[in-house]
Design a protein that fits this description.
With 268 residues, the protein is an alpha/beta fold. It is built from 8 helices and 12 strands. The longest helix is centred in the N-terminal third of the chain and has 14 residues.
Length: 268
């Protein structure tokens, strides 16, 4: 997808939300990058291979011009990425099958950082959503729900972010970070109509999960999940427009995700 197409889609999204006065134009506001870059510091699951970038060419050619090219290798699920429904749901949509309309939408942010920072194993529950709705109203249909635990401040420190820097099965056993309780995931997909959900930790399920109940519940209802989302502290509680575009891997269960948010001045 070209930059022009992205901007046009974003403009249409903003127009639909009533924040643009002319097609193709934006009100004054701010763009927020919700994605971490990929490098040797990128955090992956303890059993996944880290991101690798190899140099094919970098220098002056014999014809007198500079040329650089690289090869990269990366697991689908690492860094800022998307979990497609097929990741935990047999027959679910693959990355390339997720409609763009599900990935470009108004966002609401639920901030549980005070609780999560006090308890690495905190699981966001139905009461957290009820409390949010008592203050801000019902989560609108078609929203992208963003969960802020506060752990984004630790990126890319693996020990502080994941609870461990160990790899393999030993590392998985020592994962401690907040996530979404399966009962809350069930409530979201049965009582609300959301487009997608994102979180600023390595998994929508908390680190010590064994059954990955939130993954199963959300993806069983064709709800994509965004993990390792950056800069949620810069996103307002309501009023943001999110564009979350994955690499279009045919048949993929996930992929790196470039997610951005537009914050109109009136929402800041």
């Amino acid at each position: 997808m070209s930059l022009t197409q992205i901007v046009s889609l974003a403009a249409l999204c903003c127009l639909t939300a009533g924040c643009a006065t002319q097609y193709g134009s934006f009100p004054s506001g701010q763009w927020i990058d919700l994605s971490y870059d990929y490098s040797s510091e990128t955090i992956y699951w303890p059993t996944a291979e880290p991101f690798k970038l190899d140099t094919v060419s970098a220098g002056m050619t014999e014809k007198g011009y500079y040329y650089s090219a690289y090869e990269f290798c990366a697991a689908e699920h690492g860094g800022t990425h998307i979990d497609a429904p097929i990741h935990f749901s047999y027959g679910g949509k693959t990355v390339d099958q997720i409609p763009l309309t599900q990935l470009i939408a108004p966002a609401v942010k639920i901030d549980v950082s005070q609780k999560a920072m006090a308890n690495r194993d905190y699981q966001i529950n139905v009461e957290d959503f009820n409390t949010w709705e008592s203050l801000h109203g019902k989560i609108p249909d078609g929203s992208i729900v963003l969960l802020q635990t506060g752990y984004g401040r630790y990126w890319p420190d693996r020990v502080k972010y994941l609870g461990t820097d160990k790899r393999g099965a030993e590392g998985v056993a020592e994962l401690h970070f907040p996530g979404l309780h399966p009962e809350a995931a069930k409530w979201l997909v049965s009582s609300r109509r959301i487009n997608a959900i994102g979180i600023d930790t390595a998994s929508i399920d908390y680190g010590q999960s064994q059954a990955f109940g939130s993954h199963v519940m959300l993806m069983g209802k064709s709800t994509p999940v965004f993990e390792n989302i950056a800069n949620l502290d810069k996103v307002p509680t309501t009023g943001a427009q999110v564009i979350a575009l994955p690499m279009k891997i045919k048949g993929g269960s996930g992929s790196p995700l470039r997610a951005i948010a537009f914050i109109p001045d009136e929402a800041r």
